[in-house]
Design goal:
single chain; alpha/beta; five-stranded mixed sheet; 74% helix
């Protein structure tokens, strides 16, 4: 590679080789010229052929110089074309780079938006999870509170009474029951339903034998299971006897009472594995009910109360029915009178239409009447006379 000014020439380029060859020839020419000058003094005879050869050589050198100039011009054009090509390639690369940068910017912006949206959704879901966690924590606290309530006999009894009050309030109309009613023997019933006789007012008392049931559920050995079953059996039997002794009063209450168990699980356990306890309740006329069966029983009592009230109001209902029948008969008579009036009015309207048609015909006849024809047809003249002649 040869560097001349701002241009570079490769040694393997034919044009460069030709230029170098021309330069070598010129150098050779100069050497020969020097040798010829030196030899001019020795041989004059050789001067003319040598001059001729030198002239020929000069022409060739001139041709080589012209070729060199043309080669230089070609190399200049090639250099310009290469520079233009490099400029075009650079511009194309710049445009492509700008397009790539723009696309990358758009992709990055889209990715940023999608990431922001995903982070927003993730934050919302985390908020939902936090809220659910708060609800779970609150529910855990409520469960612990419920366990605390159920672990104490007094609070457990209050829990059963509240549940009973809620069911009775929803199932029966107001005034058909009394909560915490005191009987003549001084005992206070959780609820006294005022049914008509027979059967009469019936007591509903809430009981919650939870200890025996929980011991039964926790039993792991046969011995533990036997003791837990005996504990539950004795507890329910005691509740049955207490209700029978306190709340079944002859002449004051019905000959039976209801024992409300606020747990469907204990109710199912008694009927599934302790049928003798349920039969003992039947013998003492104490009917064991759960929240579900209590609601069904109370709905039946509601129908009884409604029927009793209907019987109490039977005379008033019959009186109202008689008055209603009288009003209906009076209404029928007035409808008949109105119908006759409508018929008479229709007849009068028809007669009026007939009279109007006749009057219209006479008016048209008078309008078209020819008095001259009337005079020709009737020659007799009627004279007016005074009254009395």
């Amino acid at each position: 590679m040869i560097q001349i000014g701002n241009q570079s020439f490769a040694l393997d380029d034919p044009a460069v080789l030709a230029t170098l060859a021309g330069a070598a020839l010129m150098l050779l020419f100069l050497i020969l010229l020097i040798l010829a000058v030196r030899a001019a003094g020795r041989s004059a005879r050789l001067a003319e052929p040598l001059a001729y050869q030198l002239g020929q050589l000069g022409q060739r050198v001139q041709g080589l110089s012209d070729g060199q100039e043309r080669l230089a011009g070609g190399l200049h054009h090639v250099s310009e074309a290469q520079a233009q090509s490099q400029t075009a390639v650079l511009q194309l690369m710049e445009r492509r780079l700008a397009e790539v940068q723009e696309r990358m910017s758009e992709n990055l912006q889209g990715a940023a938006r999608r990431t922001s949206h995903s982070l927003g959704e993730l934050q919302q879901r985390l908020q939902v999870i936090d809220k659910a966690q708060e609800n779970i924590t609150k529910l855990s606290g409520d469960v612990l509170s419920l366990q605390d309530i159920l672990s104490n006999k007094q609070t457990r009894g209050a829990f059963g009474e509240i549940q009973l009050n809620d069911i009775v309030t929803k199932a029966l109309p107001a005034g058909s029951f009394t909560l915490q009613a005191t009987l003549s023997n001084g005992k206070r019933a959780d609820c006294l339903i005022h049914l008509p006789k027979p059967p009469g007012p019936i007591v509903v008392d809430a009981k919650f034998p939870l200890e025996g049931y929980e011991a039964l559920r926790r039993a792991e050995t046969q011995d533990q299971l036997t003791r837990a079953a005996q504990q539950l059996r004795l507890s329910v039997r005691k509740h049955i006897r207490d209700i029978a002794e306190r709340y079944i009063l002859e002449g004051e209450t019905a000959d039976g009472a209801l024992m409300f168990l606020p747990s469907e699980a204990i109710y199912a356990e008694l009927h599934a594995n302790f049928p003798e306890v349920v039969r003992e309740g039947f013998n003492h006329r104490v009917w064991i009910v759960s929240p579900t069966t209590c609601m069904a029983t109370l709905n039946t009592m509601r129908a009884i109360l409604k029927d009793a009230r209907m019987r109490e109001q039977a005379s008033a209902i019959r009186r109202e029915l008689h008055l209603l029948n009288t009003d209906v008969e009076r209404l029928g008579a007035r409808v008949d009178n109105l119908d006759r009036h409508f018929g008479q009015a229709a007849k009068d309207i028809s007669d009026i239409k007939i009279s109007a048609d006749k009057a219209g015909k006479r008016a048209r006849r008078l309008d078209n009447f020819d008095f001259e024809e009337l005079a020709r047809e009737d020659d007799a003249v009627v004279k007016l006379t005074k009254p009395g002649e």
